[in-house]
Amino acid sequence: MKLSIIGLGRMGYNMAIRLLEDGHEVFVYNRTSEKSETLKEYGAKVIYDLKTIKNVLSTPRVVWSMLPAGDITEKNIEILSEILDEEDIIIDGANTNYKDDIKRFNTLKNKGINYIDAGVSGGVWGLKEGYCTMVGGDEKIFEYIEPIIKSLAPNNGYMYCGSTGAGHYVKMIHNGIEYGLMEAYAEGFELLKASKYGENLNLSDISKMWNNGSVIRSWLLELLEIAFKDDSSLKDIQGYVEDSGEARWTVNEAIDNGVSVPIISASLFKRFQSRQKDVFSDKVVAALRNQFGGHALYK
Amino acid sequence: MKLSIIGLGRMGYNMAIRLLEDGHEVFVYNRTSEKSETLKEYGAKVIYDLKTIKNVLSTPRVVWSMLPAGDITEKNIEILSEILDEEDIIIDGANTNYKDDIKRFNTLKNKGINYIDAGVSGGVWGLKEGYCTMVGGDEKIFEYIEPIIKSLAPNNGYMYCGSTGAGHYVKMIHNGIEYGLMEAYAEGFELLKASKYGENLNLSDISKMWNNGSVIRSWLLELLEIAFKDDSSLKDIQGYVEDSGEARWTVNEAIDNGVSVPIISASLFKRFQSRQKDVFSDKVVAALRNQFGGHALYK
Amino acid sequence: MKLSIIGLGRMGYNMAIRLLEDGHEVFVYNRTSEKSETLKEYGAKVIYDLKTIKNVLSTPRVVWSMLPAGDITEKNIEILSEILDEEDIIIDGANTNYKDDIKRFNTLKNKGINYIDAGVSGGVWGLKEGYCTMVGGDEKIFEYIEPIIKSLAPNNGYMYCGSTGAGHYVKMIHNGIEYGLMEAYAEGFELLKASKYGENLNLSDISKMWNNGSVIRSWLLELLEIAFKDDSSLKDIQGYVEDSGEARWTVNEAIDNGVSVPIISASLFKRFQSRQKDVFSDKVVAALRNQFGGHALYK
Amino acid sequence: MKLSIIGLGRMGYNMAIRLLEDGHEVFVYNRTSEKSETLKEYGAKVIYDLKTIKNVLSTPRVVWSMLPAGDITEKNIEILSEILDEEDIIIDGANTNYKDDIKRFNTLKNKGINYIDAGVSGGVWGLKEGYCTMVGGDEKIFEYIEPIIKSLAPNNGYMYCGSTGAGHYVKMIHNGIEYGLMEAYAEGFELLKASKYGENLNLSDISKMWNNGSVIRSWLLELLEIAFKDDSSLKDIQGYVEDSGEARWTVNEAIDNGVSVPIISASLFKRFQSRQKDVFSDKVVAALRNQFGGHALYK
Question: Which listed residue (A74, A171, A246, A253) is catalytic?
């Protein structure tokens, strides 16, 4: 079908290709037009002014916003809402907080514009392997855009998750779990490396072996095979780990729902601490030990 | 090659079949002979008296002990060590603590008997998918028995991990990671279910979708698809979770090595608490809140 | 000085007495008048209609709201804001979220009414020992009401913490720490009781001893002495622990500020779980273990 | 009574003074004699050769070993056991593992020598405030040496805890709790400092206020008042925190007893991590995020 993709970052760019290869007619728009141009060879049509959308798409128009979550997406959807007509459809594929989806859905509903939230997983591998896609919103609208979702996703790799926000909610949980899984592997490998057997173990080989028949085999572990390949000591990588919001929301949600999430929260906190050079709480404990026990301070 | 398997539990029984199907000559021994008999149709030869091993196997004799770790295995290996000759090989496939491996290796070495520790993963699915196998001990002895390991494991699913204990050490870490992975999924699903979208979500469908293209796809998640299939509320299952020792040792090892393992330890502690009806620490906090704040007590 | 206290719960009632005993002229108001009546013998003057406040207090009028945080307090302050005049002062002594303080401060400022947030600690012991009080808002207004705070608090037991919200923020952190402290003691006593020495140890005696000269002596541990006094097995107390919000906010704040709080979050999650009969995440892990290892399920 | 103290470190030295001031006759021994000499002015008698103990003490001889736990204490007690006679009493006041106490007790029993384990808390403040002392061993022997314990401890600050090992076990739990308490305060102060109100808050003043009437007042918080006094940013202190073993044992014991200790373990792990410059598990997660999401690596 005809659709427009706004935002050609790591995700949006490859999603456009995947849709083009599956026969959709894709009008791409990006802040800077360079990336748009290179998509022409895949058959993309390029939009240089958002207002053009109104003319090039057939009604109900389908616009997929693939910008960074937060203010940028918010502003873009405001602009779109002024361009589009009643019945048109905006899909937000960013990692948006589900509460924002609900607000937006209501705002857009007042204008008669449809809103779909889509959580998209797959990262840089999505182009090749497909993007697992979790969709929330009005089920009829979902059915209308399903051909797009189907092209993006691998077989069985998408799902209508429920009313507005459900798509991003399920994606949020997905990412919360992801944090925990990564940390579980990371702890295991740290201990293995620190152990008496660690020096002689190639962690890429270990990952590969575990990926063949062990209980803990997974796609993440396959990626670890690759990550450890060149240098299983990772000596050139700094242990500085960013977080992109979903795990924070997962813990906030857990708190709101009275659900205990020791693993996901510990994984999040570990990342916070990975970015601190000078941990104040550790200073406090050091100072306190010095006070009561006369234990030496490191200065 | 010729070998004997002692212990035909869930693991040993299927391992025997896998070895038989790959052309090995397997002499099976079990405390009760019923299971041995049914293996005859796969071509197994049955031993009713351990001493027979000496006559039926060719030297160096290869005996695979697949009994529950701990006293039972310990005693069995003692008995075997009196039956076997110098150069013979005992392989322990149980989840033995690596420290016990080292003790045993030394004891057996004095008698000239070789000892190999093998960590075996794969559970009830191993028969079909192969057993991921981690081996420790003398490398030459590993090479000698490699054909057995190769038959047990899937392609690339085994590894020589290092000197005595290394096999069980790597398996211990594997299980520690497994505890963390399971808990990460479990937390995510608990929160999803408790959320406002939870009521209408089929967790088996969610698992299936995530297994197709998402970052968190894994074999464990495939098993969750099955586990949630009949009843995604799991209402007939009690949340009582046993632990079999390896995660305890993983945390102990982490402590000995000064390695921080918040995820694995939290996963282990969660299991402990799942088995408690009446958590004393919670009573203490309740009593304390009553003392300072006059907060109501539940009796 | 002259002031009115609205809300005579466990805290408000005793605070009124403490103020009366220190010579303040206190006009009390409560939803039901019974409690007000009994305060008369301490010298309190009773208000039966909030509007009376306007006449009985001298300007700038000082009204201390001591109602449950949340909607009840919110509504009460709205009502007060319609009764009071410019320059009058509302103090909220509830455990209000600091973000609500900031909103309220701005709303009231538009009407010229002053707003002070006061975090009050001390529980049922405050009457006798004084209430530790943390104050936020305009410093000049703080100075004006300081005589009240001084009467409520023990020597050195109050502080001006900064601009609006600071009082409740510091109180929130106080409570977050409190959760962690309680859980630390609780874990220690649970392990002590479960140990081989536990059966013969009287936990009240242990607490008392530790309170005399040990590093971990504290007021909470003194309360544990009392709590364990009659029955150190706490067999008549259910391990059901409520939480009143501040620790939730503490963890949320930590997330917003990228600060790692493993202890406070674990203490909060422990309370969540203490209230669950049937922990879904434990069911998930049990179901999963059954899938891969054939481990028995408890039904 | 007459006794000998072996080991005049931070603890032993002050304990000797406290005993001398309470009228005991104390024979001190230290590896280097300098410290012994300065104790002469408090009335100590100095021993330069351990064998002298036999002559200067009256039977049953009482010897208090106050050396670092582990090999040094072990060796010292071996030496003492060859010098002393049947009925004599060795007290170990170090932070010894209770399992070692049991081994030692049995070894010494074979020689007819009595062994008492004493857990001593109080740190550098013990001289002034008294040492909280937890005693294990034969109750009759405890009663015999009680006058010494009584002089060391503040009023009510000592306790006979049970059979051999009980004293050090209770001390171990005490220290485990201590780790949790310290971390709870540390987290709270870190968040307070990081918050929007943090810049203007003097943490020493906060501690002081909380120590007057708040629920979280404690001796540790009094020490924090002092620690924060000169510089509440602690900018000259490195957040490098040692651990001395008891919390490790506490977690190991918890694992052996199936008791969940999320707070104490998290506090211990936090210390481990405070000493790491380059956390391998963080590198693993960073590498993994780069693999699946193309997220930037810091090198």
Answer: A171
Strand ranges inside D93-157, DSSP E: 114-121, 132-136
Q: Is D22 on the interface with C (CB under 8 A)?
A: no
Distance between CA atoms of B232 and B248, rounded to whole angstroms? 30
Token digits of residue C58: 């001298």
Judge whether D192 is closer than 8 Å to chain A, CB to CB. Answer: no
Interface touch B268/D261, C-beta < 8 Å: no
A102 with A165: CB under 8 angstroms? Answer: yes
Q: What is the pTM of this model?
A: 0.96
Q: Please confirm whether the linkage preceding A147 is cis (ω < 30° from 0).
A: no
Query: Can you tell me which residue has the tokens 């690339």?
Result: B156
Give the pairing of strands D62-65 and C114-121: unpaired
Whole-angstrom Cα distance, residue D271 to residue C127? 40
Q: How many CA atoms lie within 13 A of A55 on its CB side?
A: 6
| Torsion on CA atoms C99, C100, C101, C102, rounded to nearest 10 | 60
Contacts A129 to B, Cβ<8 Å: 213
User: Which chains touch A (3+ CB pairs under 8 A)?
Assistant: B, C, D
**Shortest Cα–Cα distance, A202 to chain C (Å):** 27
Q: How far apart are CA C151 and CA D209, in angstroms?
A: 15
Contacts of B49 (CB under 8 A, 6+ apart): none
Max distance between CA atoms of chain D, in angstroms, equals 77
How many angstroms separate the CA of residue A253 from the nearest CA in chain C? 10
Chain-chain contact of B180 with A177 (C-beta, under 8 angstroms): no
Instruction: Tell me which residue of B281, D39, D21 sits closest to D6, measured CA to CA.
Output: D39
- H helices present in chain C, as ranges: 10-21, 34-39, 53-56, 71-83, 98-110, 126-129, 139-152, 166-194, 203-210, 219-229, 246-256, 262-274, 280-293
In the structure, what pLDDT confidence band is assigned to residue D299 with cuts at 50, 70 and 90? confident
Quick check: D293 pLDDT over 90? no
C124 alpha carbon, distance to own chain's centre: 11
Is residue B23 left, alpha or beta, with left meaning phi > 0 and alpha meaning psi from -120 to 50?
left
D2 in active site: no
Unique residue bearing structure tokens 């220690």? C188
- The answer to whether residue B277 scores a pLDDT higher than 90 is no
Closest-CA residue of A relative to C260 is A269
Going from the C-alpha of A18 to that of each of A67, A154, B99, D56, D292, the distances in angstroms are 17, 11, 53, 92, 18
C74, C146, C178, C222: the active-site residue: C178
AA letter at B81: S
Give the mean pLDDT of chain D: 96
What number of other Cβ atoms are within 10 A of residue A93's Cβ?
29
In C, minimum Cα distance to D127 occurs at C213
End-to-end Cα distance, chain A: 65
Task: Name the percent of chain C lying above pLDDT 90.
Answer: 94
With a CB-CB cutoff of 8 Å, which residues 28-47 of chain A face chain D? none
Specify whether the backbone of A163 is left (phi greater than 0), alpha (psi in -120 to 50) or beta: beta
DSSP letter, residue D162: E
Alpha carbon distances (Å) from D227 to A297, C160, D74: 12, 21, 35
Task: Count CB atoms within 10 A of the CB of residue C81.
Answer: 17
Task: Confirm or reject contact between B124 and chain C (CB < 8 A).
Answer: yes
Q: Which of the residues C234, C269, C280, C291 would you substitute to probe the B interface, choosing the one with the greatest number of B C-beta atoms within 10 Å?
A: C280
- Cβ neighbours of C251 in A, within 8 Å: 251, 255, 265
Q: How far is B287 from chain A (nearest CA, A)?
A: 21
> Taking 90 as the threshold, does the pLDDT of residue C88 lie above it?
yes
What is the ipTM metric for this complex?
0.96
In the sheet that holds C2-6, the strands lie side by side as C45-46, C25-29, C2-6, C62-65, C89-92, C114-121, C132-136, C158-162
